[in-house]
TrEMBL record:
<dbReference type="GO" id="GO:0006412">
    <property type="term" value="P:translation"/>
</dbReference>
<dbReference type="GO" id="GO:1990904">
    <property type="term" value="C:ribonucleoprotein complex"/>
</dbReference>
<keyword id="KW-0689">Ribosomal protein</keyword>
<dbReference type="InterPro" id="IPR002150">
    <property type="entry name" value="Ribosomal_bL31"/>
</dbReference>
<comment type="function">
    <text>Binds the 23S rRNA.</text>
</comment>
<protein>
    <recommendedName>
        <fullName>50S ribosomal protein L31</fullName>
    </recommendedName>
</protein>
<dbReference type="GO" id="GO:0005840">
    <property type="term" value="C:ribosome"/>
</dbReference>
<dbReference type="InterPro" id="IPR034704">
    <property type="entry name" value="Ribosomal_bL28/bL31-like_sf"/>
</dbReference>
<keyword id="KW-0687">Ribonucleoprotein</keyword>
<dbReference type="Pfam" id="PF01197">
    <property type="entry name" value="Ribosomal_L31"/>
</dbReference>
<comment type="similarity">
    <text>Belongs to the bacterial ribosomal protein bL31 family. Type A subfamily.</text>
</comment>
<dbReference type="InterPro" id="IPR042105">
    <property type="entry name" value="Ribosomal_bL31_sf"/>
</dbReference>
<dbReference type="GO" id="GO:0003735">
    <property type="term" value="F:structural constituent of ribosome"/>
</dbReference>
<comment type="subunit">
    <text>Part of the 50S ribosomal subunit.</text>
</comment>
Length: 104
């Protein structure tokens, strides 16, 4: 007898295992999932490693332009490049934020 989604009375042992089996009609469909294969990755310093992915083709090589060994977000070395005075313009525009203005 069933009460909602719970099988009642509870079953144990081999009967429980048989009740949990998925029938063949509900099994995972073939040819609908992407191919999962190995890919070679070359980091900016030349080190390589192999990973598994759905991207590309089996045996492809991925060359990284930015990785944790060279990106400032991970290395902690920040560089500000002022192209056309953009940093100075930003600092001038937002210089007064955070200061308390006195009422007249």
């Amino acid at each position: 007898m069933r009460r909602g989604d719970v099988l009642w009375p509870p079953i144990h042992g081999r009967a429980a295992i048989a009740a949990c089996r998925i029938p063949e009609s509900r099994a995972m469909k073939s040819d609908t999932h992407p191919a999962y294969h190995e890919l070679n990755v070359i980091m900016t310093d030349g080190t390589t490693f192999t990973t598994r992915t759905c991207a590309g083709k089996p045996g492809d090589t991925l060359r990284l332009d930015i990785d944790p060994k060279s990106h400032p977000a991970w290395t902690g070395v920040q560089r500000i490049m002022d192209t056309g005075g953009q940093v100075a313009k930003f600092n001038k525009k937002f210089a007064g934020i955070g200061t308390i203005k006195k009422a007249p």
